Amino acid sequence: MIESDNIMKDKKLEKDDLKDTDIVSTKGDEKDTGSESLDEKTKIDNSKELGVQVLKCKSCDSSLDITKKDENNNVICPFCNSVNHIYEKNDLHNVKKEKDTKEKTENKEKDEKGKKEPINWKKEIISWSIIVAVAFLLALFITEFVIMKTEIISGSMIPELQIGDKVIGNRLAYLFSDPERGDVIFFEYPKSDKMLYEIDPELTYRYDKSKKKKTYHDNSDVYVKRVIGLPGDKVELKDGKVYINDSEIPLDEPYLNENPFDEDFGPVTVPEDAYFCLGDNRNISADARSWDNPINPEEDPDRFRFVYKKYIYAKAVLNWSEFKWVDHYRYNQGV
């Protein structure tokens, strides 16, 4: 009876020893010095085996005698020679504590970042003022040097452009190139009051009856037409059809709104660095055919008939109202 009690006491002592231990396997023939890091799942799996004298090898699942652990808390599997580290309960507690501390630190940092700093209104006003100023200067630069927007106020370019259409042009299109036949361009009216004033100021002074005095009218409207004649071209209209450089075949113009009236005009030769422009709605368009010379028509009847490159503002690009590209027709004929 006494011997039986002693055996029970020994088993109880061994069981108590196991309550404070856990086991982890390290594959290989070399012993672990305890420096291996343990993932949480492995620790939890091993903790379930606390309280038993014989544990399983984590490599080959063979039984291990925990009483044979060495001074580094390692047990070598007699079957696969893998090193199984006995993990102490206190170490598990420290790892959990470190994890909790790390989570608290991260949460604290997030909370600190989430806190709003007091608004510095002076700094905000200065910052927004700079943004608005830069945006304004950028918009001014783009509209003055890159793009141009105009509204169609007549029906001379129907059907390509309708009355009221808002059209955007590219100011840089002819910076390094010249207009081509078929291009739709923005330009200053060749007989605008501004251009006439440069020739003779008296040509643009008109009598204002309401104020009983002469006034200066700056009528520099933007015109939109299609380029028909290029520098050096000989242009002539016969029965409303356009002939270039004495060609026997009239210019193919599928963009016309309707068949033009039987009209004869010319021939005229386009000067250097100038262009002969007509409207697509040929029957009602005020264009190069009607831009005669009001100053000395006998001496130079074609003085204002052509559009010089220096007075071209832009190449029409986009019909913003209908959101479609402007058609710059390219002719199949060798003209």
Mean pLDDT: 76
The major sheet is characterized as: 8 strands, antiparallel
- What is the count of helical runs? 5
Query: Could you list the spans in which at least 5 consecutive residues all have pLDDT below 50?
Result: 1-9, 11-53, 212-219
Instruction: Measure the end-to-end span.
Output: 128 Å
CATH topology descriptor of the largest domain: Umud Fragment, subunit A
Percent range for helical residues? 25-40%
Total strand segments: 18
Name the helix and strand elements from N-terminus to C-terminus, one letter apiece.
Answer: HEHEEEEHHEEEHEEEEEEEEEE
The global form is elongated
The proportion of strand residues reads: 15-25%
Gyration radius over CA: 47 Å
**The top level CATH class name of the largest domain:** Mainly Beta
Report the CATH architecture of the largest domain. Ribbon
Secondary structure class reads alpha+beta
* CATH homologous superfamily placement of the largest domain: Umud Fragment, subunit A
**Number of structural units classed as domains:** 2
Report what the structure shows.
- This protein is an alpha+beta fold.
- It has 2 domains: 2-91, no CATH class; 148-325, Ribbon (Umud Fragment, subunit A), CATH 2.10.109.10.
- 25% of the residues lie in helices and 25% in strands.
- The chain contains 5 helices and 18 strands.
- Strands 6, 7, 8, 11, 15, 16, 17 and 18 form an 8-stranded antiparallel beta sheet that branches. Strands 1-5-4 form a 3-stranded antiparallel beta sheet. A 3-stranded antiparallel beta sheet has the order 13-12-14, with no helix packed on it.
- A hairpin with a 4-residue loop joins strand 9 (205-208) and strand 10 (213-216).
- The longest helix has 26 residues, at 89-114.
- The radius of gyration is 47 Å and the shape is elongated.
- Residues 1-9, 11-53 and 212-219 have low confidence and may be disordered.
